[in-house]
Amino acid sequence: MRIVKNLQQTFQGIIGASTRYPLTVLFLLALALLNGLTINQEKELYTNYLFTLFVGVVLSGVAQQVYERFFHKVNQRLILYALASLLTIGYYFIIPKENLYDLEVGIKTSVFVFALVLLYILIPTIKATLTFNESFMAAFKAFFITSLFTLIIASGTSSILFAIDRLLFSLDDKLTLHVLNIIFTLFAPLYYLSFTPLYEKSSEKYNSKEEKMATLEKIEESKSVPKVLKLLISYVIIPITVIYTAILLAYILLNIRSSFWTDNLLEPMLVSYAVTVIVVYILSSTIENQITVLFRKIFPKVLIPIVLFQTIASILKIGDMGITQGRYYVILFGVFATIAGLIFSFLPVKKNGAAIAVLIVFCILSIIPPIDAFTVSRINQTNLLEDTLIENEMLENDKIIPKSSISKEDKIRITEASDYLVNMNYDKKIEWLPDDLTSNSKFETTFGFEKQYENQDIGDMGRYVNLSYEEDLNLSITDYQHMMRLHLYPSDSDLSNEKEISFELDGVDYKLVQQFKDNRYVLELRDNQNEEKISVDMQPIFEKMLTDENIKKEGLSVDEATIVEENDQVEMKFIVENLNEYDSQYNGDFYLFIRIK
User: Fold this and answer.
1) Are residues 591 and 543 in the same domain?
2) Phi and psi dihedrals of 439, rounded to 5?
3) What is the pLDDT of residues 293-324, one digit of tens each?
4) What SS3 state is found at 399?
5) For 150, how many CA atoms within 13 A lie in the half-sphere containing its CB?
6) In terms of residue numbers, what domain contains 564?
7) Is 483 helix (H, G, I), strand (E, B) or coil?
8) pLDDT tens, 203-229?
C-alpha cells in the first residue's frame, strides 16, 4: 500500500506541476515531438528549433516563478507568458541557421540558460522570508532525486524492451529511443518541477487553513537537509576542501615569485576550486554544527586572496597573449568570486543571494555586445595580431609580408592569434587575413615561418602525414592481382602471435603475415606450402614517408604516398592513407596492391 501511495503522490505531483506550469508543458511537448521526428528521420533538420524550445522551457519556468512571487492576476500571468514567448522567438532569430554548432552560439546559450536557472532559484527569495540557501538546497535535492529516479526508470525500461526484443518478438529499433525521449524530455522536467513548492504567494492568501498548512509543510520538507547530506558535507566534503586549499596555498606561497604568474594550467584548477568553495559554502549555510560554522567563518576570507591573485595573474597574461573568451570568463569569474568572498565574509548568511544576483548580472553582461566575451576577444585578438605584424614591418597596405627573422615571442603571438581568429571564423571579417590558414603550408607561405607555440617541443609533437582528402580517391588496380587495406597499430597486435590475411590468386592460396618484432612491423607473403615469397620491413617505409617535406604538406597526392617493394617473385605497392609517429611508435593505414610475378 505504501508503494501505491507513493506512486499516487508522484503522479499527483506531476499533474500539479503540469497545471502550474502550462507554458512550460507546451514547450516540453513540442520539444518531445521534434525529438521524435529527429529520431525517425535521423537528420538534424530541427536542431535550431530544439535549441529554441529548450531555451523556451527555462524562460517559461522563470516567468511562472516571477508570477507566483510578485503577481496574482490572470492577465499578469498571461503578459509574463507572452514576454517569455517573445524572448524565445527572439532567440530563434538571433542564432545562426547555417552554423548552429558554432562555439559562440553554444557558450552564449549555455551562459544564458545558466543565468536563468540561477534566477529561477533566486526569485522566490526576493523580499521574502525564504533565504537563497534554503531555495538552493531545495533545488539541489530536487535535481539529484529527479536524476536518480529518471536514470532508474530509463535503465529499467530499456532493459525490459531489450528483453522483449530478444526473447519474445522483435521491436522497432527506434522504440527505445522514443521511450527514452518521453522519459527525459517530459517526465524528468515535470518530476523536477513537482518538487518546487509554492513558497509565498504575492497575495499571501490561501483557500483554506488546510491548504496553508499543506503548503508550509511542503516548504519545510523541501528546504530541510537530509541527514546523509549533512554528514557528507560536514565530514567528507569540507575536510577534502580544507586539504585541497592547503595544497593550493602552499603552491602559491612557493611560486609567488616565479611560475604562479605564468602557469596556464592553474587557471582551471583555481576556477574549479572557487566554484567548489562557493557551492559548499551555500550548502553548509543550512547546516548548523561546529564544522560548518567554522568553515563559513574562515573560508570566504581564504577564498578572496586566492582568486584575487589568480585574477591578477590572468590580467597580466593579457599583455602577452591577449584576451580570448576563455580568459574573459576566467577574469570575470575571478571578479565575481572576490565579490562573493566579501559578501560571505561581512554580510549575514541569509544575504548570500546578493552574490548570486551579481553572478546573474555578470552572466548577462558577458553575452550582450559590445562588451560580451566574444566581441571583446575578437577585437583584442585582431588588434594584437595587427599590432605585432606592424611592429615587425609585416603588414603594409593591408597586405601581409612574409618574414622569418622575428623574435620567437612574436612568432608565438602571431601563431596563437591567427589560430584563434581562424578557429572562431573571425578571419572572414578581416580583409588582410587570407583564408585557409589552418593549413601549415599556407601559414608558412603567408607569414614566412612555421607555427610556433609556447613551451613547444618539436620532438614531442610527433609526425603525421595523410592522403589528400581534397582529391577524389581513384586507385587503379591495373597490373596488380589483389588489393587489401592494412591497419597497422601496435595495440591491435599481440606480440606473441602473428596476424594473417588469407586470399587466393589463380587457384593458389596465399597469406600475408603481419608480425611485430622488436618494435618494428614486418610483412611476409607466404604461399600454400608456407614458403616465404617476400618479406618487407616497414620501418624504412615509415621513415621515407615521414620526411619534413611531407609533414609540412596538408595532404599527399597518390603518387607522393606510394612506395613499391619487390623481388624476383612478388611486387608490392603501398599507398599511405595515414601514418603517424609519436614517441618512436608508428601507427597507420595503407592500401596494399600485390602482383605475383
Assistant:
1) yes
2) -75, 130
3) 999 999 899 889 888 888 888 888 787 778 88
4) strand
5) 20
6) 465-596
7) strand
8) 455 556 666 676 677 777 777 888 888
